[in-house]
Every structure is written in C-alpha cells, then in structure tokens.
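Pasting as-is:
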Amino acid sequence: MASGMGAQGGVSRSCLDESKGITTQQKNAECAEWLEDYNECLHHGKAHMRQFLMEREAKRQEQAKAESGGQ
C-alpha cells in the first residue's frame, strides 16, 4: 500500500505502509491488534474456542447435577 490511500479513499493503515521502509518486526508490532482482528474475522478461532469452553462447562454442570441426584 505504498500509495498512502486506503480502500475507501482515506489514509491507509500506517502499519501497512511499505513506503516508510519499516522492518517486518516493526510492522508486526504496529499491526498486531489489526492482524489479530483480521484473523479472528477470517477464522473465528476465539469464537470457536469460546463455544467449545461453554459447551464443555455445560456438560460438566449436567454431569455434576446427575451425579448429585439431580438436586
């Protein structure tokens, strides 16, 4: 994105601006939050993990209730 313009005509994300000549390490540090959001949007890793944990806890509670006689 060396043009400095974003997709909607505004200013591009500075973390992706290659015209600054920043290193990959600097780019990763600057873009970490944006990349995390982008990857979550694509792959839903956090959402899938949250769903898995909620289902596991529900099963654990059901099992505990059954073991205690349903009280």
